[in-house]
Design brief:
This protein has 59 residues and is mostly helical. It is 64% helix and 0% strand. The longest helix is centred in the C-terminal third of the chain and has 14 residues. The protein is globular.
Length: 59
């Protein structure tokens, strides 16, 4: 599966980095990335990473 287009107003480089972390299996790195760039809680970031993994067929 390919990475979906970034939503309007979202930096595509940010999205590609996030999806790359998830796709490479670096779940903790993806969570830390979301926490530092989007100021998400660990729970919110974990849920977002889980959704991305499911979208990529990895879950």
């Amino acid at each position: 599966m390919t990475v979906p287009p970034a939503a309007p107003g979202v930096d595509p480089k940010w999205e590609i980095r996030l999806y790359g972390l998830v796709r490479s299996g670096d779940r903790s790195g993806a969570i830390r990335f979301l926490q530092s760039t989007r100021k998400m809680t660990r729970v919110q970031a974990s849920q977002r990473v889980d959704k991305i993994a499911a979208d990529l067929g990895m879950a």
